[in-house]
Structure formats: C-alpha cells, structure tokens
C-alpha cells in the first residue's frame, strides 16, 4: 500500500512537472526580428554575398596577406577574445555538470565526554569513528537547471561570436591602415615630383628673365611655389611613421617600418555582392552575438521563473560507523539512508519576484540591443555601397580633370616661353594639377576603403 501511494505521488509530481515546464519555458523566436529594408533603398533578391568569401581570396597583395596572418596570431585583443571563449567553455561545462548528483566523501572522529549527572552509570568518555559517502541530487522537474545549462551554452556561442567580431574588425583595420600607407607613399612621390618640376620651373624663369620675358617677381613666386610643395614632405613623412606605428601595434609588434606594395598594385578580387539583409543574422558576428545574448536572456528568465515552484531533492548517504577503530570496516558497522525532500518557497523576502523582474528587464534590453545592432549593420552596409558608387563616379571625372590639367600645364609653359602667358598662369596650372593628383589618390583609397567597409559590414573575415 505504501509503495503504491509512493508511486502515485511520483506520478503526480512528474505530470505536474511536465505541465508546468511546458508553460514556463519560453524560447526566443527569430521571426520576431524584422530585417526587411535594412539596406535602405538598396533592393537585392540575390543571396550571393562577399561575406562568405575568405579574406585570403579577397585580398590579393602578398604583403597585406602576411600582415593579416601576423595580426591574427599576435594581436593582443585577439588573444583576449580567445581566452574569453575558453572561460565561457569552462562555465558551460560547469552548467552541464549541475544536472548530475553531488558526491562527497567524509571521514571523522568524534570524542564526547558525558556529564556524570546525566550518565551516572556511564559511559563517561565516548569516541566514535565514521567513514562514508554522501550524495545529493536536485531533480530538475521544472527545468531550472536545464535553463541554466542552455543559458551557459548561449553565452558560449555569444562569446565565440564576439571573438569572430574581433577578428573581422582586426582584418578590416589592418587592410585600411595598409591602404592608407600605400596612399601616403603615392602622395609622397607625387609631391616630390612636383617639387622637382618646380625647381625646373625656377630655372626656366631665370632664363626667361634674362630674355626680358618675365620679371624678378616671377622667379620669387616660382621659388615660393616650390617651397610650398616641399614643406609638406615632412608632414607626409610623419603621417607615414605614425601609420606604420599604429599598424605595428595592431600586429602585436614594436613600432617600426612595414613592408608593403604600391597603391597602383592594389586590387580587390571580388564582386560587390551584398546579399539580403536576413543573412546578417548568420554572417555578421556582432549581430550573431546579440542574438545569442537574447537567447541567453530568455533562458535566464525561464530559470528565474522556475524558482517559484517546489524543488525536489534526493539525499543519500552510506558508510561505516563504530566506537572502536578496528571495528570500523566490519560489515556490521555499515549503515545507509535515503531522504527525499520537497521544498516550496512561501516567503522569500521578494527574492524570487526581484530575480524574475530583473531577468525580464534584461531580456527586453537584450532584444532591443539586437534590433539596434541590426539597424547599425544596415546603415554600415548602405554607407559602404553608396561610398563605392560615388568613388567610382569621382574617379571617372577625376581622370578627365587630370587630362585637362596636364594639357593646361603643358600649354601654359609653352605660351610662357613665347611671352603669351604670365608666370601666374603657369603656377596656377601646376598647383591645380598637384591638387588633382592628390585628390585622385584620395579617390582610390576611398574606393578600397568602401570595399573593406562593406566586407566587414556584411560580416566577412571570420570564415
């Protein structure tokens, strides 16, 4: 009869647990996140995206590839991210173990001296010895421990996505610094060539002055134009040094020169395919991280809700006990017991209510963070696509401008030699040509930056 009643109680508890766990456990649904129109006016139904292209294929410059490889191996932020993943793995392993019983061993010696007034016939001095095992197991009938385990797993996935986010950011930053160095090198060469041309112009002005075609003012003005260009050389050298140092820090090395190719050698081996916005959930690491954090928040809310229900604990112990040490391991000294306990919270000083309220607010905050991260990602994709399109238009127009300015310099110099143009026209033409040449470098770096920015915005670089 007692066994039958015990079975009925267990059946009732099990049925209640199933019903309550189904009612209290809630999971995050990705369908609640809106991704339509994240790229703004950019409409695309093709799922092809450069985010799935490995960085080793996207970048063709061998020097840049070597720098990225070095950065991934030595960058301090990258190493910190790896350690955070290992930390999350340890917590996840601990979370899985929470479903198992806790077992401990005990060994003790207890000495008691009894008062003679209570024990007039003895015994006065009693020594006892105990040796045994104890086990305690909380049966997870409401899913509290399982929710905790799933939260730890979601945290592991979020941390891993965080490491991938560090990697994509590192790759794009190294590439941008590299392109900046190539652009500064190009500007330095253009400026040096302009200085050399201005030196030749000064000599030309001196010859023309002897012929009476120009005055001394022309010589002075041409010399001023030469120094105006030459004075920018130290600034360019300083910018190169600072950019090299910044790149060296990213690579985890001390400041120093960085081996590199020229700007004219830089090519991007990819078609600018952005795919569809929904792919950000699977490709962009910071979006993935935010989504996993929402999943973790949902599980922590489930865990907090489970505290309102009774907890069922089984405790068992077994071992040996004796008053004489040489009798401790005797079979007659063996003892064991099993205790089942059901504890329900009644008044917990609002601890459970507060725990649930905090979990729900964190859940909503995590969901809003996911939406914000998606909006930021969509903006970055739209900005990068627009930047690339405008840089292409500028490069076409810049080529026409340079062609016209080169002819202007050539024509004004010829006209000056015949006295049909003034020295100011020559100087203005050369200054305009220098400005256009430097702007062309900016256009090139803008286009390369747009490609790198789009690659990162879509989540490329971690595969």
TrEMBL record:
Domain of life: Bacteria
Topology of the protein relative to the lipid bilayer: Lipid-anchor
SUPFAM superfamilies, per database record: Outer membrane efflux proteins (OEP) (SSF56954)
Keywords annotated in UniProt: Lipoprotein, Membrane, Palmitate, Transmembrane, Transmembrane beta strand
Chief site of localization: membrane
Family: Belongs to the outer membrane factor (OMF) (TC 1.B.17) family.
Protein name: NodT family efflux transporter outer membrane factor (OMF) lipoprotein
Organism, as annotated: Sunxiuqinia elliptica
């Amino acid at each position: 009869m007692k066994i039958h009643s015990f079975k009925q109680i267990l059946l009732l508890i099990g049925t209640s647990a199933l019903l309550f766990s189904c009612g209290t456990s809630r999971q995050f649904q990705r369908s609640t996140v809106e991704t339509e129109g994240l790229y703004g006016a950019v409409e695309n139904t093709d799922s092809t995206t450069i985010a799935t292209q490995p960085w080793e294929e996207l970048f063709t410059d061998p020097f840049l590839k070597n720098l990225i490889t070095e950065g991934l191996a030595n960058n301090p932020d990258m190493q910190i991210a790896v350690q955070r993943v290992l930390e999350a793995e340890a917590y996840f392993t601990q979370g899985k173990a929470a479903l198992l019983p806790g077992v401990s061993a005990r060994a003790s010696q207890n000495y008691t001296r009894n008062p003679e007034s209570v024990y007039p016939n003895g015994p006065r001095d009693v020594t006892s010895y105990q040796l045994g095992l104890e086990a305690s197991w909380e049966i997870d009938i409401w899913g509290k421990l399982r929710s905790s385990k799933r939260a730890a797993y979601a945290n592991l996935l979020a941390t891993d996505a965080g490491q991938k986010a560090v990697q994509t950011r590192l790759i794009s930053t190294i590439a941008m610094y590299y392109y900046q160095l190539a652009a500064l090198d190009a500007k330095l060469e253009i400026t040096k060539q302009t200085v050399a041309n201005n030196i030749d112009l000064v000599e030309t002005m001196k010859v023309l002055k002897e012929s009476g075609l120009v005055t001394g003012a022309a010589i002075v003005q041409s010399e001023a134009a030469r120094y105006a260009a030459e004075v920018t050389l130290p600034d360019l050298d300083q910018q190169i040094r600072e950019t090299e140092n910044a790149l060296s820090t990213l690579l985890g090395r001390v400041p120093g020169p960085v081996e590199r190719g020229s700007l004219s050698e830089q090519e991007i081996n990819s078609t600018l395919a952005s795919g569809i916005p929904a792919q950000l959930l699977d490709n962009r690491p910071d979006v993935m991280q935010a989504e996993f954090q929402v999943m973790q928040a949902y599980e922590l809310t489930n865990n907090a809700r489970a505290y309102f229900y009774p907890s069922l604990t089984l405790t068992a112990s077994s071992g040996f006990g004796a008053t004489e040490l040489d009798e401790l391991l005797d079979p007659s000294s063996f003892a064991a017991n099993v205790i089942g306990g059901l504890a329900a919270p009644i008044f917990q000083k609002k601890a459970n209510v507060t725990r649930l309220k905090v979990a729900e607010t964190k859940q909503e905050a995590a969901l809003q963070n996911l939406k914000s991260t998606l909006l930021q990602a969509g903006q970055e994709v739209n900005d990068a696509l627009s930047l690339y399109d405008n840089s292409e238009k500028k490069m076409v127009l810049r080529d026409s401008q340079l062609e016209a300015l080169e002819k202007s310099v050539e024509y004004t110099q010829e006209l000056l030699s015949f006295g049909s143009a003034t020295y100011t026209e020559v100087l203005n033409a050369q200054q305009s040509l220098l400005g256009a040449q430097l702007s062309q470098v900016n256009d090139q770096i803008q286009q390369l930056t747009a490609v790198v920015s789009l690659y990162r915005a879509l989540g490329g670089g971690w595969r």
